[in-house]
Fold Holliday junction branch migration complex subunit RuvA.
Amino acid sequence: MIAYIRGTLVMIQEDAVIVDVQGVGYEIVCANPFAFQASLHENLTIHTYHYVREDTQVLYGFRNEDEKVLFTKLISVSGIGPKGALAILGSVDVDGFIEAIEREDDKFLTTFPGIGKKTARQIILDLKGKLSAMVSVSAQNSANTASPGVSKELQEAQEALKSLGYSEREIKAVVPELQKGHDQNTDNMIRQALALLMKNQ
């Protein structure tokens, strides 16, 4: 199983990215390839799931480990294939989707293409309680980052990084460096954080 690909992002296509690893180009199908636009022609790491069937082999790519875990759980549900799972990931926040499962909110789940009421109930039946730990970790981290000792600018920077697709774990790793700066505005913190996150990859 190929857990991740680390190399140079050389091309972004409509439904995939091409990553060059020592002269070999890997085509990685993604929910939203243009989420990697900022890393074009730079080194990056993409979390991957190697999907193998008798008649096909596909590498699916994700911005973080949480997206990958949700993808693998979704394709285990009867009635949901890789394309359906990617459609969900491309239009929803991971934590929000998991919370909908925990609430048994089948009305919300049926708003996604290809998911009818029967499939929504199957998702709830198969996955409820199995993904809640991911939400708990994120919620705990959010609570920590919203502590009184954290500046408004830092909180805003963290929210901006979340909107760009970075996970709570990735953001938390660079917060100590951001807190070392004095009198930094939100934009400067975001730029510094992006530089640190790219370096960490």
